[in-house]
Amino acid sequence: MQAYHEIYAEAQQDPEGFWLEQAQRLAWFKQPTVGATLKKNGMADWFPDGELNVSYLALDAQVEAGRGEQTALIYDSPVTGNVQTYSYRELLDEVAKFAGVIQSMGVGKGDRVIIYMPMIPQAAIAMLACARVGAIHSVVFGGFAAHELAIRIDDAEPALLLTASCGIEGKKTLAYKPIVDKALKEAEKPPQNVIVFQREQETATLQSGRDHDWQQLMQHAEPVAAVPVASTHPLYILYTSGTTGRPKGVVRDHGGYAVALNFSMNYVYGLQPGEVFFTASDVGWVVGHSYIVYGPLIFGCTSILYEGKPVNTPDAGAFWRVIEQHKVTAVFSAPTAFRAIKKEDPKADYLKRYDIGSLQRIYMAGERLDPATYEWTTEVTGRPVYDHWWQTESGWPMCANPVGVGATPVKPGSSSLPVPGYEIAVLDTAGKPLPAGEEGSICVRLPLPPGCLPTVWGDEQRLRDSYLKAFPGYYCSGDGGYIDKDGYVFIMGRTDDVINVAGHRLSTGEMEEILAAHPEVAECAVVGTPDDLKGELPIGLVILKNEADIDPGQLQSDLVQTIRDKIGAIACLKTLYVVPKLPKTRSGKILRRLIRQLLLREDVAIPSTIDDPNSIAAIQQSIEQQSKASHR
Ligand code: COA
Ligand code: AMP
């Protein structure tokens, strides 16, 4: 604990000195001499006079340091029966050539490139190739539907879109190209060029003039070197759900991000270069950006890119098999993945078939690690299990166990201690810091450390409105929780309309906007309710228009399908109730907490601000009738 407190204090007392020292561990083209410049909004630009390139750090610098023959990336794909390894030298060659491909299409510094790809090595190659030429990538998770892709295209205005012919979800082959075509039709600012990686499971039809074949282009490609970019140059935009239908484009820079990730690889994950890190997530999420692609490679580890699920590909022993086969040192996934394994294999019989001797630690994030899942995973694996808290916006952990400098005792339900650089405060509604043990809004005192979002793409005002306005001088995380007397942070859930379904961050506000657009719907509300496997599941209440002429069952399946079509199957909105009224305050605010209580059949304390106390019984009655009917 002493080492933790010393390092934390050092970063707090002299942030610029602390992070400049960390920055020296990387191969800059131009070493920074200034730690940070403060902006008017309280945020910082990190290493403003430094120049580097993250693709160079992840590849060229590793080869130059003697890691050319070390495995950089292991593509492990139980869904196709493939395992393919890339040494650092091989990955560098592929990335440099693909950078040549995109450069020959006119893509350069500052241009945006959308990457809509499944979990294949070409996704990582595409990201690193964009970084190499100074282009800004924006990876869109393959589970999102065409409409979501179109929204992101219109916001990023890309010069190029990269995709593959299909994704493979368990036993299903999902054609990507029709989704891309539909999105390009819907988008107002589509890119001029599309490059398609043809997988053997599906051949996409290419539109002449616009679409190009990845493999053919690579045959004639010339490798290109990494271009130096300013530390503050954007590396990527990653869209994340806010409270409305318009996702926020979280921007990440090259310099601050590289320094923060490099620091975290040992400090948080306790890893050494050469060790194997298995992050079972998707490159479409921030976890995939930071700890499948950039973090492990910048630090010289071997990273696993896993195209499969925790269960059913082929069974609940999937993770243990990967750990044995590739001698994994640390594994990281979402609690929902371990809950899925526990559900299928409660006694961990599959685990007994594998030798997981190489495994030292297990990490979870994306949602709160519930104590039951923590206990089970610890017990069956005999390994330390660490919860850690972060967001798309931070890009790397804000709270974690300081494993690299000496692990501290784990408290189940807590994501442990603030990471150096993050001064976490729990504030009441008036912005006053709360004493230990009291629950409030989890905030971070400004300026944020390196690695965190410098802005929202094309919308500085949204940065202020979403994160900086609520509590002046602080970044508001949108999460609620408390800090105990030992300084351990407990994140208890969101304070806004964002929900977390199987580790996927989704907006109930966006679902409401889509439902409300249905011609028969007058009003609606969507709330998150607890689910044993996925953490949370959305449930909707809808009110029909007076003149509506539709069978409620038909409406329900129409609405479920609309959400799948617009957002994607990952939204998992499967339950909807038609109700006569929504519970509201007299000023018209929907009482979502009360809706949640009604859905969970909890005792309802009717607030004095409610506009119509009699509506509760009528809503309860319709929910009961419809859920009985659906169980028949
Ligand atoms: N592309 C296309 N469709 C996708 C997809 C993708 N990348 N990912 C999920 N989907 C679809 C699924 O096929 C499913 O469709 P269906 O309703 O037609 O069957 C739907 O979205 C829901 O998928 P999912 O939430 O993954 O549920 P599941 O029941 O198939 O699997 C888990 C449950 C827990 C095994 C799975 O959610 C999981 O592995 N979660 C871990 C998530 C994670 O790693 N999050 C990253 C944060 S660290
Ligand atoms: P995302 O931006 O998709 O990574 O989602 C971030 C959100 O997930 C956070 O704001 C939290 O609500 C939740 N979250 C992530 N990690 C944790 C954790 N360890 N404990 C509790 N909530 C978490």
What does this structure look like?
The chain has 632 residues and is of the alpha/beta class. It folds into two domains: 2-308 and 388-481, 3-Layer(aba) Sandwich (Rossmann fold); 502-630, GMP Synthetase, Chain A, domain 3 (2-Layer Sandwich). It contains 19 helices and 31 strands. Strands 5-4-17-16-18-19-20 form a seven-stranded mixed sheet, with helices on both faces. A hairpin with a 2-residue loop joins strand 9 and strand 10 (172-175). The radius of gyration is 24 Å and the shape is globular. The mean pLDDT is 96. Bound molecules: coenzyme A and adenosine monophosphate. Residues 142-143, 167, 169, 174, 280-281, 285, 287, 309-311, 333-334, 336-337, 340, 366, 502-503, 533, 569-570, 572 line the site of coenzyme A.
Number of domains: 2
Q: Over all CA atoms, what is the radius of gyration? A: 24 Å
> Stretches where pLDDT falls below 50 for ≥5 residues?
none
Oligomer: single chain
Query: What would you give as the CATH superfamily of the largest domain?
Result: ANL, N-terminal domain
Find the CATH topology of the largest domain.
Answer: Rossmann fold
How many strands in all? 31
Q: What is the helix tally?
A: 19
What do the pLDDT scores average to? 96
Percentage of residues in DSSP E strands: 15-25%
Main pleated-sheet profile: 7 strands, mixed
Named once each, the bound ligands are:
coenzyme A, adenosine monophosphate
The best one-word shape is: globular
Computed structural class:
alpha/beta
Any guess at the CATH architecture of the largest domain? Answer: 3-Layer(aba) Sandwich
- Strands of the widest sheet, in order across it, are 5-4-17-16-18-19-20
Proportion in helices: 25-40%
Regarding CATH, which class of the largest domain? Alpha Beta
Protein name: Propionyl-CoA synthetase
Organism: Idiomarina aquatica
EC number: 6.2.1.17
Pfam families: ACAS_N (PF16177), AMP-binding (PF00501), AMP-binding_C (PF13193)
